[in-house]
Design goal:
alpha/beta, seven-stranded parallel β-sheet, two-stranded parallel sheet, 18% strand
Amino acid sequence: MKILAIGGSGYVGGLITPYLKTRHEIRILDLKPPCDADVEYVQGSVLAPNDVRGAMAGIEGLVYLAMGVPDKDGNHQDGPSFDANVKGVHLALSAAVTAGVRRAVYASTMSVYNDWSKPAVQNEATPPDASGVYGFTKRLGEEVFEWFARTRAFPSFALRLCGPLSDERWQAASQHGYSGNTSASDVARAFHLALEADHKGFTAVHITGDYENRLTDLSRAKAVLGWEPLARPGVVSRFL
């Protein structure tokens, strides 16, 4: 599938591109070039409609990875967060519908919850309650995807990611205790399966490395995507 990864030069894009490019033809739209010089790159901003429309030509699947740049202290500010997570999402989906793109996958986050690991947050039926601007605007981005699915019949998934790490870093972190962090190959597999799924409407899915289901119920990911985390301490996850 020919996919456009908006914001694909960022952290999550850098983790999943090496895997996705083995199964898909990738074009990245970003302000800065990706580390992988073998991937097609278009310089541009998600906030510039002409840039987005131009990059969308010939695309079958959209992967939205853009996010606002935190300040020097790592804090997410209101303006960049709303621009990337709400306005940019709307501009991208509008261009995708016009271009005849088949489906989209949104890199959302478990940060749509104030504390996703508490017992009250078991599955996707739990309403998001983020108080921080990052999680709040990510949730608003999900609402934009839902609106396009409902009013434009444009199918999409929101993958609520948890602590994506390279496979090597995941293995190192696993030696210091159990967590919901997710290995890059597991994350990439979730994106691949979401792109390939025969799906209608909008669905939010929890994607975590919680392989023992101590913290989250991952049954929806298994049911709608056929996905579950495969990484284990001492066992490198496979992509496919």
